[in-house]
Amino acid sequence: MVGALALSVVLAACGDAGLLDGVGDRTRAYAQGDATTTTVVAVVAGTGDEGLIGATAVEWFNDDLPNEMTGTPEQVIRGVWERELNSRFVQSSRSEISTAMPTIAFPDLVPETVRWITSQLVYDETTGGLDPDISAAFGMWTSDPYQSNSARLGVLRVGQAAADLLAARSEIVPIIVPDGISLGWTEAGHRYELFCRSNISEELCIDIANSAVALSGLLP
Fold this sequence. Notes:
CATH class: Alpha Beta
CATH superfamily: MucB/RseB, C-terminal domain
Order of helices and strands: HEEEEEHEHEEEEEEEEHE
Structural class: alpha+beta
Distance between the termini: 37 Å
């Protein structure tokens, strides 16, 4: 019930056009990589002064990994694990994650200040299989990843949902946590937890969660 109330507030705040209210009104320019290179990214949605851009418009940190694994889900899961043994969180490309977890979803929209997205498969170190509690993790960064925790604006963790839950998407449930808000929901056998830092409003965080689509549809 709390999630439904929060969602109704978001839709009211966005106006009659909902999440696409104000599409095309603004753009953001930023330097990326070489300081002399400027990339212009369109703000495609948002709430008030907070904008959202397409997840495919930013850099995915692990898309150029050497020895990227292909094959069946089982082959990719095993191959990624063997690529970096003894590490629970293994840097993985979005292609590897979408193959390992075919029904996984990721937000189509991210905060306009995000410049990088990191992606990892998460393992049970005893079995070498994916950890059912957290099987994949994604970070949304405003600057070069892993240089400063303050640059990590949001985190999405995806685990295995209880077997008796419906495949249809559940209600989004917000939980206030230190330094921000956490949104939880389940869909297609997965359990999602999206953390947004306190400088992102609850309304915008819910917009991000509601934009989730199949990760396989966001591949380069």
